[in-house]
Amino acid sequence: MSETDKNTVSPFRAGFTCRCPGCGKGKLYSGLLKVADKCEICSLDLGAEDSGDGPAVFVILILGFVIVGLAVWVEFAFSPPLWVHPVLWFPTILAGSIFLLRVFKSTLISLQFHHKAGVGVVDDTSSHNASE
Ligand SMILES: [Zn+2]
Fold first, then answer.
1. Among 111, 101, 98, 104, which residue's Cα sits nearest to residue 21?
2. Would you say residue 132 lies in a domain?
């Protein structure tokens, strides 16, 4: 029954809500962007999951496209003084980067878990030795 429950967790739902990919309930992060060592609900080893540089690439491309487009639009529509751009875009870039990094990192980790494509697959052989 618990195996069926694990398979019903949508990787996209767990990813977008930053929840554990195993149970969909525990928090994935222990800090702003630090993945927790283990799930507080199902004790899944989250420390073995690694999304690499993938989320950063998505965030750079998506946020860069949006911010540059908005900055160009603000410049041509309102012609503000030059200091308005850093005041406007630095906080937007900072908050947007952190938000999008959390979501993309969580989603990639959930997809890796769902498709069994993480580092944890290699460690499966060591769990058989643990029963000794
Ligand atoms: Zn969990």
1. 111
2. no
Q: How far is the CA of 104 from the centre of ligand 1 (A)?
A: 18
Distance, in Å, from the CA atom of 80 to the CA atom of 120, rounded to the nearest integer, reads 52
Per residue of the chain (132 residues), give pLDDT as tens.
444 444 588 989 999 999 999 999 999 999 999 999 999 999 998 887 788 888 999 999 999 999 999 999 999 999 999 999 999 999 999 999 999 999 999 999 999 888 887 555 555 554 544 444
- Span from the CA of 127 to the centroid of ligand 1 (angstroms): 18
Prediction pTM value:
0.76
Cα of 100 to ligand 1 centre, how many Å? Answer: 22
Q: How far is the CA of 20 from the centre of ligand 1 (A)?
A: 5
* CA angle 129–9–24, rounded 5-degree value: 85
Between the CA of 43 and the centroid of ligand 1 the distance, in Å, is 6
Q: Which domain holds residue 106?
A: 2-118
Inside any domain, residue 126? no
Domains held by the chain: number:
1
Q: Is residue 47 part of a domain?
A: yes
